[in-house]
Structure formats: C-alpha cells, structure tokens
Amino acid sequence: MFSVLHKEEGAHEDGIWSCAWGRTQPEKPAEEETEKDPEASREFVIKDDKPEQAPVDFIVTGGLDDLVKVWDIREDNTLKLRHQLKGHSLGVVSVAVSSDGKTIASSSLDSSLCFWDSQSGQQQHLLSFGPVDLWTVAFSPCDKYVISGSNEGKISMYSVETGKVEQVLDAQNGKFTLSIAYSPDGKYIASGAIDGIITIFDVAAGKVAQTLEGHAMPVRSLCFSPNSQMLLTASDDGHMKLYDVAHSDVAGTLSGHASWVLCVSFSEDGKHFASSSSDCSVKIWDFAERKCMHTFNDHSDQAWGVKYSPGNDKVISVSEDKSLNLYNCPPNIVV
C-alpha cells in the first residue's frame, strides 16, 4: 500500500524547491561471438553468462542553499549522497535530468543555467543571463536541448552540447514564465505564466499554437501525459486542470488541496499523477477516475516539488522544511 519509504531530513541546509528522477541504463554486453568448429562443419556461439544488469535510478534536488545534490537509492530505500554540485551563487529553483540519465540541468536565482555530468559531477557548461531571465528548465525528448522560460514570455532552447541558444519562441504576452514542459512526442512546448495564461507552442513551426485561459492565478507547474494528448496544469488558485491538447478543451478540473498547487507529475504509464502544495501535502491521483487515491501529510512546510519515478511505483517530494521524502505508490491500486 501507500507508504513513506524514507524521509531524508536536512537534505539541504535551506528550503528545497525542485527535484527530479534520473535513470541510467547499464552498458550493453559485447555482441555474442560466433566461431567455427574446425573439426566439423558447424558454428557455435560464445555467450557472456553475466546476468543482465538492471537500470540504476537516482534523485536530483536543488535547494536555496545554492546546491544541486545527486542521491543514490540503496536497496533498503535509504539515500546516499553521490555528488554535491557547486556552481550557482544563489538558490537553485529548477533541476532536470536527460532521459538517458547522463546530463543534469539546473537554473538559479542568480540567472545562471548549469549543465552537469551526472556520473562524474563535472560542470559541462555555465550560462549567465540578465536578472530573472530564466526560471524552470526541461529537457527535450531527444536530450539534445534544454528549454527555459524568461521574464518576458519567451522560451529559449539551448544546445546541451554547445550551450548556445538554438531557437527562441515568443508567447508575445511579455509575462513572467513560471513553468515549462516539453511534450514526449517532441511536437509541443507548454509554458505557464504568472497571470495564469498557458501557451502551447508548435515546435516545428516555431510559433504559438494555442492559448489557454483556464486559471486566474500563477501557473507554477505543468506536464504532458506520456502520450502527449493531455496537459496537466497546477495553479495558485488551488486547482489543477486537464486540457485536451489537440482541441484546447478542458477535460477536467481537480480540487483537493487547501492552498496553492505547486507541482504536478504524471506517472510514466499515464495511469496516475502526483501533486504537491503549499498546504504541505502530497496527493496521488487516479487519472481515469480523476480522483485522489491517497494523501501524504509528511512535510511540515510547503511542498515545492513532486516527481514520479521511471518505474511508476515511487514518488519523491521536496519541501521548504529541507526534507526529501521517498514514497511507495503501488502502480496497480485502483480507486
């Protein structure tokens, strides 16, 4: 059933604003060798009998102590600090991990964007911008780009390899961009603004495809469903909304938190999603039924970030209370 697997108290020395999961795949074994038996007209195959290794999951957090931290998960679900990444001079507001688990991106209140090697902890690029000129960061599905919104409604796309700007999209609203997401199929980028307006960009066309006006207050988080057909948004108005991306229709409005909804995250199978709030709670929702399945009340201050694991069975959350929580969320439980 739903349970708290581990609570890492004092994970940072200050509030934690962002978290992300990473997954690295083990190196594939060498190709099987085929040799010919000289004594007979037949071939035989030499196989490597080493058992296939499982992928390795890890956690990344960003705190107001200016640090990005990388955590390994032990077999007993306790956490071991792999790296403490120093490069920002002010609090870290957003972290993201590439789908191959090799690269970490982080953004800070000092208006800098850092790229890191997740294995070595080495800084790959450090990009500096004007005051409050970037906020949330996200990777493209192909891992070649990192996107970030600005205080003027523009979305910039940076090359992971070079750190250079490859494309700029403009919402043409001049509003501070608080949240950003890239659709898994690579076709769309969604951004949420401080005035509650959501903009969906057509990436190939390089222009605004839709503007959604379902919220009246800041949209602090949004994410696409795994099939890219739905967009889930979270706002200071205390509501979450589900939009049909193709038709711009509101497919559902969800309420349950007593205050601002700060973060939302879909499970990879699309059956569930998680939300965190300034009411200090983390909620797990059934997507099909649009119902809350479980509420975790294990933070003592606002829960800034929440993320589903790649395996659909765990969730992490981070909070102003400086803690990082790891939850068990069985994927097959129904409402």
Automatic annotation (TrEMBL):
Question: Which ranges does the record mark as transmembrane?
Answer: none
Concerning CDD domains, the annotation shows: WD40
**Domain of life where this protein originates:** Eukaryota
- Which stretches of sequence are listed as region Disordered? 20-41
Biased composition (Basic and acidic residues) is annotated at: 25-41
Residue ranges annotated for the EML-like second beta-propeller domain, each copy included: 134-304
Q: What PROSITE patterns would the database entry show?
A: WD_REPEATS_1, WD_REPEATS_2, WD_REPEATS_REGION
Where are the WD-type repeats located?
A: 58-81, 85-126, 179-211, 212-253, 254-295
What SUPFAM superfamilies does its record include? Answer: WD40 repeat-like (SSF50978)
What UniProt keywords apply to this chain's record, in alphabetical order? Repeat, WD repeat
Tell me which InterPro entries the record gives.
Beta-prop_EML-like_2nd (IPR055442), SKI8 (IPR051510), WD40/YVTN_repeat-like_dom_sf (IPR015943), WD40_PAC1 (IPR020472), WD40_repeat_CS (IPR019775), WD40_repeat_dom_sf (IPR036322), WD40_rpt (IPR001680)
Cite a GO CC annotation: Cdc73/Paf1 complex
Record protein name field: EML-like second beta-propeller domain-containing protein
Which organism does this record belong to? Lucilia cuprina
